[in-house]
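Entry for the shared binder. Reason: the reviewer on the internal report wants the predicted structure included alongside the sequence.
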Amino acid sequence: MRQDNQLLVITHLSQLIVLITGFGSLLVPLVLWLTQKEKVYLMDEHGKNIINFQLSLLVYFVICIPLILLFGLGLLGLVVLGIISIVFPIINAIRANNGEVPTYPFTFNFVS
């Protein structure tokens, strides 16, 4: 296995592709993780954290949709989730560049 912090950073930042294409925030990191987890040191741990974060965001987005009908709470939730989905990949890309293990808040462990 090789140490490749740059690929780890790219994997975290690949979640932001949704800002350009409108989709792919789960797909691109998933492909990078599945193809590189045996080759790059710590890719398995970073990839699992990213996938769990993206799946958790998906669950939270789905929960917010019916909440739009109730007092507009869903709109506030969607705005907060949108900000979180941009900020935390950037923070964790910086952490990955420094050799630290990423932490994403409020994530469910879908992949362990």
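Summary line for the report: The mean pLDDT is 93.
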